[in-house]
Amino acid sequence: MEAKDGLFVFHLAKRERALLTHVLKMFPVGSGPVAPLSKSGDEQKLAEHERSLEEALAEQRTEHKRLLDAFLGEQGRFAEDKSGFRLRLTTAQMDWLLRVLNEVRVGLWMKLGRPEELAPLVLAGQLDSVVAMEICALFQSRLLAALGGRQE
Fold this sequence. Notes:
Helix content is 59%, strand content 13%. By secondary structure, it is α+β, with helices and mostly antiparallel strands. It has one domain (2-147).
């Protein structure tokens, strides 16, 4: 990874690029809030606030999907070189990409029933979802390391 003047260049092997685009194309996975706003209070007001939150999240997912399609479809987004690909990202793009990867990861976790441990899911035949979650985690850690100034 190289960083200069707010621009980050990640070097990806062909397989890494394929894995990244695979998990990004899974977006959106979830469709609602992770948890209820509150377990107590005025039920009517809570229901109204939850509807508002769901609408806002739906709008955000629509915008993220539009940006994601443009991101993946952008000519030269993944510039090929002799060792694989170079992915250039601004700090703002990295922040956005972290959010999308997290939404995929959390969405898969929610679909799996919010498990405390993943190993039993692998044995139960949920390998694809568990691997996709781990791929998201890998790319999130690389992005966070770059933002923190550490080399990969």
